[in-house]
Structure formats: structure tokens, C-alpha cells
Write a structure and sequence with these properties.
single chain, 640 residues, alpha/beta, nine-stranded mixed sheet, seven-stranded mixed sheet, 16 strands, globular
Length: 640
């Protein structure tokens, strides 16, 4: 008997290691998915509270405005009883012209008193009790802070779990720095000056992830805004010459004159949910007391720096003893107004000290010279990494693309807009309806007809018989909610409380909610609509099983069959993993609105989506205007 033996322990160990790695990766992916769904549900709750806070404020203000309505008919009767001398005396007291016949004086007096009544209403609104204003504003700030924190937590989870794959966008770094300053500049204290020292737009264009890089810069600026109460905040961006014309060694930095970070705290502040000893000046106000710094912003910036360095190329290397960059030609490619590179000391501040974000506090003398003597010792945070230069042919397109969209077009809404809001929460439907109400009030010449649906199935039935310009679609819908609505409607029917006058005789669906320019009428109509909304909903068995992107896919298929131009369909969701975005897009989504969403989010989505709407046939260009392909609704116009 001959036996052959083979030691497979090493092979088995390798297989075990591979299996453990796969299990760990699967667990990380599952954790990311669970986190996304948990944050989605929390956003729903926070969004509901935020919507209620806004409604409380609106209700109090409108009550004051409408508290003493002007009765034009009664005022006219009283004026007609007055003699001409009395009319002229009344007009004199109101500072109005007293010349003319009695009918003209009567008309003029009624108009003057109507104006006076309106002014009194405005004065009453201004005297709205400070306690109510402070409470509603406090509630709004706390809720918005919770949403922002959840967004940062989700971003951290995605990057830590490796589920975020950076894209390779064409990015104009000069324009990106200007955009970051535009977004965070308003947060700075009045005594703080913002300096932007960056290349001119078009002179430094690279291939990197636009969203990540903008998040990195805005997080650093947000940190500077929190802790800097006087002095300056500096945004710095430049590139060093590289031996390869296709690469650039890029430095992106933010410096401030805040209290600084003690050496013992400098590693700690880059961990999630930890902060230094300094207290943000924003936390000292009553409004912000419940929205203190969570310590997650710098952790996210550090993770982004790691991702960008890993995917963009090795970080800039420095020989610490020789203090010269290992690249032979270590001079700034883009001249710097502050000449931060031109110094003779022993070391250059942009060197790479560690993997990820670089931190120095107090700031080095070079940067302190730029910032000046006001303020504290300050903090300097920067990223030094290698990036690919964008191909020359893409530079021109990038310059247009990188500008804020309102540099080439402005949002100009005019005509009649038909909207469908789909969500399985009544409060969220009201919140979105309120956004469109405010949109209507801001745009003279815009009318809105709005319908609501509680499921994807309900939405697809509506789109078969009614045509819409815009649809907002919740992603996570509920069959149990539809069943509960159905049971509530049946009970109302049995109690003879179901109102049938809420249904359209034309198609049997609920009558639309309409908005115009009058704020008080809009609010009254919206409140009345949602008080009786359940009477107009008609869930069918099985409603609620279809998720949002499936409903959008069904709408797209219907449009193809009926040869209709595509409706603008936005996913309204708190679940914003990159894989989900790709899935939404593949099923015909026009974009994603965060949940809870703000009016600025809606306006930006409409304006930023114009190129896509024109490309897919949702919109057409007529002269300088962009119009929806269905009806006479104008969305945008060229900036003049």
C-alpha cells in the first residue's frame, strides 16, 4: 500500500480567511442597508415634526392677518352716506388726493381704507408674541439639525463600510471653492471676513468626485464657522507642477482664527461623535442650545480625504529632513495671491503628516500672516493629494457645468402646473403640498393644481386619466396604511359621513387642490383639502405593495404606450445610498429630493434638471424659455 500525503493546512487557512472576509463584507453591506432604512424612518418622524412646526407658525400668522378682514361692500355703503366735505376730510387725514367728483372720492376712500386695513394686519403680524416665534423657530432649528446629523451619519457609514464608490467627474476646482464659499459664507459671523484664494475658473480642472470634494470643503468651512467669532476664514486651493502633464498635486485648505485645537485633542476630534474643548459660538444661543456640535463633521471630512487620496493617486510626498518636495519642480502651478508657498522657513505647511486630512493648530506663521492678528490661534485643515487633470477638450463644458446653474438659467415658473404628491404619510403629503403652495406664491403668473395619492398603484391609476408636469414619489410605501385608510373610509360610509362632493364627476377621482397668488386663500384651501382628503382616496386591494421606483417605472411604461412626453418624477426619500440612486435612475427617476425636503431643494431640482428634461423630451426650448412639452408651463429662462 502506497500512501501520498499533502499538507493542506496553509490552503485551508487561506480559504478560511477568504470566507471570513466575504462574511465581513456581507455584514458591512447589510449594516449599511439597515442604517439607510433606519435613517429613512427617523427622517420621516423628524420631517413630520418639522412640518408641524412650520404649520404652527403659519397658522398663527394667518390668524392675525385674517383676524379683522376688510369688508369692501360695507365700506362703500358708509362712504356713499358721507357728504363731499366729509369725504375730503377723511381723505385728507389719510394723506390722499381730495380732488374729484363724489363717486371718485368714494372709490378713493374705500381703496385708502383697504390699504390701511392691510397695513394694520401687517403690524399685528409683526407684534406676534415673541414666545411663539421663538418656540417655532427653536423647533425648526432642532429638527433641521437632526436631519443634517442623520445625513452625515449615513455618509460616514457608507464610506466606512466601503459601499461608496467615488466617481470621476470633471471638476473645476476654482468654481468648486467659490460654490463652497457661497453655501457656507452666510453662516459666518458678521465680524468674520471670508477670503477665497483659489485659481480662476477654468484654470485648474481635474477628474475627481465632485460631490465628495464639495462635501469635504463645506464640512471644513462649517467647522470654521462654528468656532470663529472674529477675524478671518481662508479658503485656499492651488496645484504644484508635476513631471507628468496629466497629473496635478493639489492642495485644498481651510484656515480660521478660532480658538484652535489643543495638541492633545487633535487626534480625538477626527473621530466620530467627539469634539475638542472649545464650545462653538453657535451653541451659546438659546435657539441652537439643543443643536450642539456632534463631532461628526471632521470625521466625515477625514474619511473623504482618505477616499480621494486612495482613488486619486498617492499623496504628495515630503522628505522631512530635506524639507523639499520629492517632485523636482515643486512650485505652484497657479500663482497664489497670498504667496503661501513663497517662504524660506524649515518646512512647508502643506506637507502630508498623516493619511487623510491634515491638521495644524495653532496655524503656521505663513498662514497666520494672511489671516492677520485678530482672533485666536486658529486651525488649519487641508488635503494634499494627486489628481488627474481633465482632458483639454472637456474644460470648456466643465466650466459651464461647474457654475451654479442660475448663472446660465433662472427658474421662471409661469402657467398652470399639475402636480401629483405620492406618500403614505398624511403629514408628509401636507408638507410637500405646502412647498408647492409657497412656490406658487413666489412666482407671479403661476397656478398649481395638486393631487395626492397614498400608494404607487393609486398614482399609476391617476396618471392613466390625468396628466402631470411634476410627480414626487415616496420610495417606501405601505400596504397596511392603505388598508387602514380603506377601513376608515368604510366606517365613514356606514356612518353617512363620507363626502362624495370631493370627487370629480369627470373621472371619479378626488378634486384637485388649487393654489394661486393669495397666501391666505391658499392656506385655507390647503387646510380644507386635507381635512377631507380621506374622502377622496379610494384604495384597492393590494395597494401599497409597489415601491416608489416601481411606480415610476410603471408611469414611464404608460407614457411610452400613450406616446406622451415624460413627466418630471422625483423620488422623495431619506434612503440615499449610491446604489439606490442608480436604481432610481435606471427606472426613470428625474432626480432625488431628500426627506424632509425644503423649498430650496425643490427649486434646485427643477432648475438643475433642465438639461436632462430637455434631453429626454420632458421640456422643449422656445426662444430663451424652457417649457414643459405638455401644456404651456414655463420652467426656466435664460439669464439676461
Amino acid at each position: 500500500v502506497v500512501g501520498i500525503g499533502q499538507d493542506i493546512s496553509e490552503s485551508r487557512a487561506k480559504q478560511d480567511a477568504i470566507m471570513k472576509q466575504r462574511e465581513a463584507e456581507a455584514a458591512q453591506a447589510a449594516q449599511a442597508t439597515i442604517s439607510a432604512h433606519v435613517y429613512h424612518e427617523i427622517r420621516n418622524v423628524v420631517g413630520a415634526v418639522l412640518a408641524l412646526a412650520e404649520r404652527v407658525s403659519e397658522t398663527v400668522e394667518l390668524s392675525l392677518l385674517a383676524g379683522s378682514p376688510f369688508d369692501a361692500e360695507e365700506a362703500t355703503k358708509l362712504a356713499k352716506r358721507m357728504k363731499v366735505e366729509e369725504l375730503r376730510g377723511a381723505l385728507t387725514s389719510l394723506g390722499t388726493d381730495t380732488q374729484g367728483t363724489k363717486p371718485l372720492l368714494v372709490e378713493r376712500l374705500v381703496d385708502a381704507r383697504k390699504t390701511e386695513s392691510s397695513q394694520r394686519g401687517q403690524q399685528m403680524m409683526q407684534r406676534l408674541p415673541d414666545a411663539v416665534r421663538k418656540l417655532t423657530e427653536h423647533q425648526r432649528v432642532v429638527c433641521q439639525h437632526a436631519v443634517n446629523t442623520l445625513n452625515d451619519m449615513l455618509d460616514v457609514a457608507k464610506i466606512e463600510n466601503g459601499t461608496y464608490l467615488p466617481k470621476e467627474d470633471v471638476v473645476d476646482l476654482g468654481a468648486l471653492c467659490a460654490r463652497a464659499a457661497e453655501l457656507q459664507g452666510p453662516r459666518l459671523q458678521h465680524a468674520v471676513e471670508l477670503i477665497v484664494d483659489a485659481p480662476q475658473p477654468g484654470s485648474l480642472v481635474v477628474l475627481t468626485d465632485r460631490v465628495l470634494l464639495l462635501q469635504f470643503m463645506t464640512n471644513l468651512l462649517s467647522n470654521a464657522a462654528k468656532f470663529t467669532s472674529t477675524g478671518k476664514v481662508l479658503i485656499f486651493c492651488a496645484a504644484l507642477e508635476h513631471s507628468s502633464s496629466s497629473m496635478a498635486d493639489v492642495v485644498l485648505a481651510v484656515a480660521d482664527t478660532g480658538p484652535g485645537i489643543a495638541p492633545a485633542q487633535q487626534k480625538r476630534v477626527l473621530m466620530a461623535f467627539t469634539t475638542g474643548d472649545a464650545v462653538p459660538h453657535e451653541d451659546l444661543s438659546d435657539t441652537a442650545a439643543a443643536s450642539r456640535s456632534t463631532g461628526i463633521g471632521l470625521r466625515l471630512a477625514d474619511l473623504i480625504a482618505n477616499v480621494l487620496s486612495l482613488h486619486g493617486g498617492p499623496e504628495v510626498e515630503v522628505d522631512e529632513e530635506d524639507t523639499e518636495m520629492k517632485e523636482a519642480d515643486a512650485l505652484p502651478r497657479v500663482p497664489s495671491a497670498t504667496n503661501l508657498y513663497e517662504h524660506t522657513p524649515q518646512r512647508r505647511w502643506w506637507r502630508a503628516l498623516r493619511t487623510g486630512i491634515q491638521l495644524e493648530s495653532p496655524v503656521c506663521p505663513d498662514v497666520k500672516t494672511t489671516l492677520g492678528s485678530r482672533g485666536g490661534p486658529g486651525t488649519l485643515l487641508w488635503l494634499a493629494t494627486r489628481m488627474k487633470r481633465a482632458p483639454a477638450g472637456s474644460v470648456e463644458d466643465t466650466m459651464v457645468e461647474e457654475r451654479p446653474s442660475d448663472n446660465t438659467r433662472v427658474l421662471k415658473l409661469r402657467g398652470k402646473m399639475r402636480v401629483l404628491v405620492v406618500d403614505d404619510q398624511r403629514t408628509m403629503r401636507q408638507m410637500v403640498a405646502t412647498l408647492f403652495q409657497r412656490l406658487c406664491q413666489e412666482n407671479a403668473g403661476l397656478e398649481i393644481e395638486l393631487d395626492t395619492a397614498i400608494s404607487g398603484e393609486h398614482a399609476t391609476r391617476l396618471t392613466r386619466v390625468r396628466r402631470y408636469h411634476v410627480v414626487t414619489m415616496d420610495q417606501q410605501l405601505s400596504e397596511s396604511y392603505c388598508s387602514a385608510v380603506s377601513a376608515a373610509r368604510e366606517k365613514k360610509r356606514q356612518d353617512n359621513e363620507l363626502k362624495t362632493d370631493t370627487l370629480s364627476p369627470r373621472d371619479g377621482f378626488a378634486l384637485s387642490l388649487t393654489f394661486g397668488p393669495d397666501r391666505i386663500q391658499n392656506a385655507q384651501k390647503r387646510l380644507a383639502y386635507f381635512e377631507r382628503e380621506i374622502d377622496g382616496q379610494a384604495p384597492e386591494p393590494g395597494d401599497g405593495t409597489m415601491v416608489g421606483h416601481e411606480a415610476i417605472r410603471a408611469i414611464r411604461d404608460l407614457e411610452v404606450r400613450q406616446q406622451r412626453p415624460p413627466t418630471v418624477c422625483f423620488n422623495l426619500t431619506g434612503n440615499i445610498l449610491e446604489a439606490d440612486r442608480r436604481q432610481y435612475s435606471a427606472n426613470g427617476s428625474s432626480g432625488v429630493l431628500p426627506k424632509p425636503t425644503k423649498l430650496s431643494d425643490l427649486k434646485n431640482a427643477l432648475l438643475d434638471g433642465v438639461p436632462t428634461f430637455l434631453a429626454n423630451g420632458s421640456c422643449v426650448q422656445r426662444g430663451n424659455g424652457v417649457f414643459h412639452a405638455f401644456g404651456e408651463l414655463q420652467l426656466a429662462d435664460r439669464r439676461r
